[in-house]
TrEMBL record:
InterPro entries hit by this protein: Mo/tungstate-bd_C_term_dom, Mop_domain, Transp-assoc_OB_typ1
Topology within the bilayer: Peripheral membrane protein
UniProt keyword Kinase present: no
Organism of origin: Methanoculleus bourgensis (strain ATCC 43281 / DSM 3045 / OCM 15 / MS2)
Biological process (GO), any one: molybdate ion transport
Cleavable signal peptide: none
Keyword ATP-binding (UniProt): no
Domain of life: Archaea
Record domain Mop: where: 2-68
Organism placement in taxonomy: Archaea, Methanobacteriati, Methanobacteriota, Stenosarchaea group, Methanomicrobia
Name used for this protein in its record: TOBE domain-containing protein
Length: 69
């Protein structure tokens, strides 16, 4: 699979919290840290997502905000 998105972060599914329509998917990134995605319940089913499955968090954005204290 080839994507134009430059930010492809490999990891494993740590937790899936499924609601009526959407699901919150927590991914433990290979480089450390976590990222959370909210996707449809149907997408979770179509992708066959389960805890421990190897996935990529793909970030495609035209704007990234940076903040400091």
């Amino acid at each position: 699979m080839k994507l134009s998105a430059r930010n492809q972060l490999p990891g494993k599914v740590k937790h899936i919290d499924t609601g009526m329509v959407t699901a919150e998917v927590v991914i433990a990134l290979d480089g450390g840290g976590e990222i959370t995605s909210v996707i449809t319940k149907k997408a979770v089913e179509n992708l066959g997502l389960t805890v421990g499955k190897k996935v990529y968090a793909v970030v495609k954005s035209t704007e990234v905000m940076v903040a400091v204290d």
